[in-house]
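## retry 2 of 3
previous attempt timed out at serialization; input unchanged, resubmitting
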Amino acid sequence: MKLQFPWASRKHYHPDPTLTKYITCAKCRHLILLGHVENKEVRVIDRSKGATIEHLEVYGKSCAPEYDLREIAIDGKERFYKDGREINQ
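## retry succeeded, writing output
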């Protein structure tokens, strides 16, 4: 006996879950594995638009910058921080 539910679509598909595991490097745009140990996440705080917008940039091992936080001020100036201290780029 074949069990069928009336609300189930007969022709449907599920997207490949491996496609959601990859993102692009913020510098070179190559595909990198999301959540990999050697990837570096940099927090970006953007205040140049008048409101504070915060997001993460993910870099591969070979493209990783030395800073942990990048701040874009209201006047458009960029500041870089590592371990809470400002560094000069």
